[in-house]
Specification:
The protein has twelve helices and 22 strands. With about 400 residues, the protein is α/β, with parallel strands linked by helices. Strands 11-8-7-6-5-2-1-12 form an eight-stranded parallel sheet. It has a six-stranded antiparallel sheet with strand order 13-14-15-22-19-20. α7 links the parallel β6 and β7. The longest helix has 15 residues. It is globular and about 70 Å long. The structure holds alpha-D-galactopyranose (GLA). Alpha-D-galactopyranose (GLA) binds next to loops.
């Protein structure tokens, strides 16, 4: 008996009817803004328009951040026919008008719903209304749907996640408007193994929170800071790539206490080829935060067409070097200081010999080939692999370099 074949057949039979995912929407990780991390439920039409204007004025739209995503709490009640409506006090001109406003500025419109009876904040969920809701989103001009996992039952009675996300995927296909489907199931049912068939990105963890190395319990769920989330990503790197991305959650860049932490968070998400969804107050952000988010070399690392997530090349308890193969034989490396003290660190290329990504079949051999280094933060030349790289890295900071074959 051919066991792998039998297994594959069983998996295929158990899978819900094939979805017709709009395939070309996320060949590189989606980029945009989402309301949740900074504003929670406190959102309205004026805030979304103000944020859209600030994305344009700050140059962030032109840097690639095009999705403007409303998270939880935009909802009103369903009407007599069951059609979902916006909260008419918070969104008095309605969702179609808001979508038009965004599209007129070269932005895209994202919305949020949930696979259960209610959203996490208790607004109407889409269970049993999937086709009706997707059709309504299409009428409003929606381009991106984040689909959450609250109120989907527990234990035996829990909704089957594949069925739930397949149904919304089919509903979007039936609505006939291309929409990115963001699977927000918190990594509980291994969405990296099945999410690609139905959606374009899948959360790998519970919610992020704006701290460096903390986890905070909320009874039956926890939220985690930058390092605990980072530490769960490497094992999943095989599953992420063009068309379907591991999503370590929306960014807290701009919401962390120090510039170094904000810089590191951004660098690490770029190294992971994570979706870059800004979660801060865009009209109020400082010029330093703007410069981090708009850094063209860091964005290019995230958006590299190979879409290969980084791995830990060198790991010490205090400093780690992550490496990411890029197109054309280039590499990016990130030197992360996990600690709250400054650290000196040296990479001796001759001693390490080579940089090897067995999983993706990529290799840089420093004995055979020499590379030029560019500091990705500043764009300045930073020597070559002929001499060791010696750096003093500030507390919780991250230095990033691209390596180009000479
Ligand atoms: C869940 C999601 C968050 C956010 C909130 C909204 O916790 O994981 O990203 O969407 O719900 O209520």
């Amino acid at each position: 008996m051919n066991r792998p074949l039998v297994f594959a057949l069983l998996v295929a039979l158990a899978a819900p009817a094939a979805a017709q995912k709009f395939d070309a929407l996320a060949q590189t990780p989606p980029m945009g803004w989402n309301s949740w991390n900074h504003y929670g439920c406190n959102i309205d039409d004026a805030l979304i328009r103000r944020t859209a204007d600030a994305l344009v004025a700050s140059g962030l739209r032109d840097a690639g951040y095009t999705y403007v995503n409303l998270d939880d709490c935009w909802h009103g009640e369903r009407d007599a026919n069951g059609n979902i409506q916006a909260d008419s006090e918070r969104f008095p001109s309605g969702m179609k008008a808001l979508g038009d406003y965004l599209h007129a500025r070269g932005l895209k419109f994202g919305i949020y719903s949930d696979a259960g009876a209610t959203t996490c904040a208790g607004r109407p969920g889409s269970q049993g209304h999937e086709f009706q809701d997707a059709a309504q989103y299409a009428r409003w001009g929606v381009d991106y749907v984040k689909y959450d996992w609250c109120a989907t039952g527990t234990g035996e009675a829990q909704r089957n996640p594949r069925e739930a996300y397949a149904t919304m995927s089919r509903a979007i296909a039936a609505a006939g408007r291309p929409m990115v489907l963001s699977i927000c199931e918190w990594g509980e049912n291994d969405p990296w193994l099945w999410g690609r068939a139905y959606g374009h990105l899948w959360r790998t963890t519970g919610d992020i929170i704006n701290c460096w190395d903390c986890t905070i319990g909320h009874g039956n769920w926890i939220s985690s800071g930058v390092l605990p989330i980072l530490d769960k990503q490497e094992a999943l790197r095989a599953h992420s790539g063009p068309g379907g991305w591991n999503d370590p959650d929306m960014m807290e860049v701009g919401n962390l206490p120090t510039l170094a932490e904000n810089r590191s968070h951004f660098a690490l998400w770029a190294m992971l080829s994570a979706p870059l969804i800004i979660g801060t107050d865009v009209p109020g952000m400082s010029s330093d935060i703007r410069a981090i988010l708009a850094n063209p070399r860091l964005i290019a690392i995230d958006q590299d067409p190979l879409g290969i997530a980084a791995f830990r090349w060198i790991a010490t308890p205090e400093v780690e070097v992550w490496a990411k193969p890029l197109a054309d034989g280039n590499w990016a490396i990130a030197l992360l200081n996990r600690t709250a003290q400054p650290r000196d660190f040296t990479i001796d290329w001759a001693r390490h010999g080579e940089l090897k990504d067995d999983l993706k079949g990529r290799r840089a051999d420093f004995a055979q080939a020499r590379f030029a280094l560019t500091d990705a933060w500043t764009g300045r030349a930073a020597g070559t692999t002929a001499a060791p790289l010696v750096r003093a890295i500030g507390p919780r900071d991250t230095h990033v370099f691209t390596l180009t074959p000479l």
